[in-house]
Amino acid sequence: MTPAPIAVALDAPDLETAARWAGLVTPHVTTVKVGLELYLRYGPDVIASVRGASGVRVFLDLKLHDIPNTVAGAAGAVARLRPSILTVHAAGGPAMIRAAVEAAPHTQIAAVTVLTSLAEEDLERIGLAGPASDAVRRLAALSVAAGATALVCSPHELRAVRAEVGDDITLITPGVRPAGAATQDQARVATPERALADGADLLVIGRPITGSPDPGAAAAAIAASLRRTSHA
Ligand SMILES: O=C(O)c1cc(=O)[nH]c(=O)n1[C@@H]1O[C@H](COP(=O)(O)O)[C@@H](O)[C@H]1O
């Protein structure tokens, strides 16, 4: 069975749990994602631990956001780990994004537009005018112009972003919840089937899989549902 285009967010409190989750979901998904919690606790060793023998793609989600020189150094430092994808915040601006792209030439740089935990009413408070989709589209365009080949946005903006940046850019969407699942701290959400139909290339899913008593079965169920939808 072809693995589904899902990155399972391994937001685990310890390395053993993360590696166990990675082993359980790997037959069903293309990618596992290491975020700040694991990386700050265990450092670079975490990448080899979750990659295991399977050679699953590892998405390193550090959301770098600093001046270009600092981001170049940080991206260069993790580039040697050969993650498939590395995140930076689009709000760091074009020079910062370009610095990451140049420092990690073998890694796909994904620019995070507007966090999926922010609701429309939060945007004004952080100084982003207009609906989320306007801010996301603006940040998407500047990120691609600066050399990013992947973007992170919520499922709500997928169609607008695709129209803005075209088919060659990888669209990654967190904020994915199977029907009936709790949204938790996510604000702009949709089901996996909806997100895929709206043009996502990679769905980031964490707690709906890792919070299940059987993460392997949860990943397999979502993967099967995506296969049914894409063949319908
Ligand atoms: O860059 C990300 O992956 C990311 C961007 C974003 O806007 N929202 C977002 O939730 N994420 C990450 O996606 C994952 C979502 O996890 P769950 O909410 O448990 O499915 C977490 O690891 C977040 O750090």
TrEMBL record:
Binding sites annotated in the UniProt record for substrate: 11, 33, 61-70, 116, 177, 186, 206-207
User: What keywords tag this UniProt record?
Assistant: Decarboxylase, Lyase, Pyrimidine biosynthesis
Report the enzyme's class at the first EC level.
lyase
Q: Which GO terms describe its molecular function?
A: orotidine-5'-phosphate decarboxylase activity
EC identifiers of the protein: 4.1.1.23
Q: Which reaction does it catalyse?
A: orotidine 5'-phosphate + H(+) = UMP + CO2
Orotidine 5'-phosphate decarboxylase domain location is: 5-222
Catalytic residues in the record = 63
List the PANTHER family. Answer: OROTIDINE 5'-PHOSPHATE DECARBOXYLASE (PTHR32119)
Query: What job does the chain carry out?
Result: Catalyzes the decarboxylation of orotidine 5'-monophosphate (OMP) to uridine 5'-monophosphate (UMP).
Q: How does it assemble?
A: Homodimer.
What protein name is recorded for this chain?
Orotidine 5'-phosphate decarboxylase
Q: Which organism is it from?
A: Nonomuraea ferruginea
Gene field: pyrF
